[in-house]
Design a protein that fits this description.
alpha+beta, 3-stranded antiparallel sheet, two-stranded antiparallel sheet
Length: about 210
């Protein structure tokens, strides 16, 4: 008979603390709120990190009875980490969620300077030796974009540029087809441009290097 795994008993959470994340920090993004959670968790002891979670725009700390000392220590760490949290740089997945933009748009606007970078950050992937480097963004710049219509303006500009490039490509293709269709045999081949017939005396002319 198959073994039936025993279900772990639900922890008896009696110690609870909550902190509201300011709108200037989350910028209305659940992805950004999760990012703030991970940033604060990284400053906590490994065994206590999962005691802190996020629900909406609320950070929630929950521990079992008897963990009063750990609860107090983590609470102090969270409160310290929240000081100035509005200035925490925005990472790629967060700016995409905040501004509702595609990864391709982020890359394009970053490359042409419309989306200014605030620098780069290098992190090591969990459980891997490989590191990745990515651009980070000033939260106040992101907030300014969120409150303006520049993203839509950029999209309109990109659409116009794409349409213009397509028109140019079609025009070049048309000219190429017409040139190929109307191509004539060059005179140095020894043939008449109009009729294509061999010119009389051409071989003697060419032999004299004329």
């Amino acid at each position: 008979m198959p073994r039936i795994a025993k279900k772990k008993p639900e922890p008896n959470i009696t110690l609870v603390a909550e902190w509201s994340l300011p709108p200037a920090a989350t910028l209305g993004s659940s992805v950004r709120a999760k990012g703030i959670l991970l940033e604060i968790r990284a400053r906590l002891p490994v065994k206590l990190r999962k005691c802190l979670d996020v629900r909406g725009s609320e950070l929630v700390l929950g521990m079992e009875e008897g963990a009063e000392a750990d609860f107090a220590a983590v609470s102090v760490s969270v409160e310290k980490a929240l000081v100035g949290i509005e200035s925490l740089e925005v990472i790629p997945r967060e700016i995409e969620d905040i501004l509702t933009i595609k990864t391709s748009e982020r890359h394009r606007w970053l490359k042409d300077g419309r989306l200014p970078s605030a620098g780069t950050r290098t992190v090591k992937l969990r459980g891997r030796a490989r590191k990745i480097t990515f651009h980070i963004f000033d939260p106040r710049m992101v907030e300014d974009l969120l409150n303006s219509d520049r993203v839509e303006t950029w999209r309109e500009e990109d659409a116009e540029t794409k349409a213009e490039n397509r028109r140019r490509a079609l025009w070049k293709a048309k000219l190429k087809r017409e040139a190929k269709k109307n191509a004539t045999v060059p005179p140095e081949s020894g043939r008449d441009e109009a009729t294509g017939q061999k010119l009389r005396g051409w071989d003697e002319f060419a032999s004299e290097f004329l």
